[in-house]
Predict the structure.
Amino acid sequence: MADEKDSGSGSIRRRSWDPVVSTVALELFGLAVSGLVALVGWPFGWLPDTSFVGIVTGVIAIGPAAELYSRAGPPRRLAAVAALLALVAVRLFVAAALNWAFPALADPGVGVLVGYLVGLPTGVAVLAWLLARANVA
């Protein structure tokens, strides 16, 4: 494939943004699953709350990050901590910005959910970047 290249050691290296694209695609799939759950529950008067949507989406979308972590070398713990800090920072910033911009939202958890959906690919990007840097050096 054009996106893959041989590093000389016989292993094939992928571009560092591939896991981020996979994470976003899996997030969209997770949102679709949550939407189907909402459509099934709606006639019975049950709608999922934002924490349910966040958990379902997170469990479905965490695969690329877990694959990156399992294939990484020894400095992977520091990269994972940095990725989690990036996820939390982006999540809090987006949640605060959304709650400030739309104060009339009925559920303040919407800001946290949107922040999480933006923060997860950011965390995966930080993880991929740090692991790629550690493997090059």
